[in-house]
């Protein structure tokens, strides 16, 4: 099959699924739409320079949803409290991999979109900075504002707080930062879906948070989610974490949610808020 070669600069990495000295497959933006890229070949020149040839595949709406669902699942998996605790204790990659398996925390395997079909084009990566191994190591997750509409270039003009995280330009964002459409580059925290959407409606759904400090803000959840957490009475919180459907908010959106959803008079208040107690994350375990 004769596949046309295209200029590498027409493609821009969204996020990768697998990595081997650089991204080997995943989602990329090409000609205004999301597509799937995959490794074809490794090239090397006499000068010692080397790189990858990538194939580009068109994606149907169903394939886009399949990819989105897995990448979102991967993000929820990465931020599971149990996995966060392991990362704090273990720094060796091999030991960490064994600990994940032993703890039953293995991420669901996904080989990529089904029925991709033949590639529609290919390119040789040499100078495209969005695919540089140095710059893309942390691009393993979707921008928080990415969905099927943004994948097709139809970006909402006034997205809610839950959907305005991520740099739509495709620029590299550090792993511990998010690019908020309202506040720019910021540290971030996770909030349950009820807070993420309640803040835009001005709803006082409650605001409880943990004492984890590995991100810019600790995990936060509403009164309804808090009741379910307390009811666990020390049992595993893994299913609870999934049900909370945590969203990324930049630190300033997180602070705003604390005021709006929790009834706190000002950011930094250490009082109990309108619902009463605030319990630390570890005290709930």
């Amino acid at each position: 099959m004769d596949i046309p070669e295209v200029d590498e600069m027409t493609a821009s990495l969204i996020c990768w699924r697998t990595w081997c000295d650089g991204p080997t497959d995943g989602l990329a933006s090409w000609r205004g739409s999301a597509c799937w890229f995959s490794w074809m070949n490794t090239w090397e020149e006499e000068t010692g320079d080397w790189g990858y040839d990538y194939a580009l595949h068109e994606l149907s709406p169903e394939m886009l949803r399949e990819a989105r669902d897995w990448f979102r699942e991967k993000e929820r998996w990465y931020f599971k409290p149990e996995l966060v605790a392991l990362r704090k204790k273990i720094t060796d990659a091999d030991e960490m991999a064994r600990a994940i398996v032993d703890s039953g925390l293995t991420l669901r395997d996904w080989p990529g979109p089904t029925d991709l079909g033949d590639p529609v084009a290919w390119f040789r990566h040499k100078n495209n900075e969005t695919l540089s191994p140095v710059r893309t190591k942390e691009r393993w997750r979707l921008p928080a504002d990415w969905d099927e509409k943004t994948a097709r270039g139809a970006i909402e003009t006034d997205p809610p707080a839950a959907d305005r995280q991520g740099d739509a330009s495709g620029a590299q964002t550090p792993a511990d930062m998010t690019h908020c459409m309202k506040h720019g580059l910021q540290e971030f925290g996770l909030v349950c879906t009820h807070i993420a959407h309640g803040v835009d409606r001005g709803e006082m759904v409650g605001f409880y948070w943990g004492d984890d400090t590995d991100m810019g803000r600790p995990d936060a959840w509403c009164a309804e989610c808090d009741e379910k957490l307390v009811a666990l009475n020390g049992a595993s919180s893994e299913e609870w974490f999934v049900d909370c459907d945590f969203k990324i908010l930049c630190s300033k959106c997180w602070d705003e949610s604390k005021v709006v959803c929790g009834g706190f008079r000002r950011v930094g208040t250490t009082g109990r808020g309108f619902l009463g107690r605030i319990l630390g994350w570890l005290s709930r375990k």
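Residues 154-160, 167-173, 265-285 have pLDDT under 50 and may be disordered. The radius of gyration is 21 Å.
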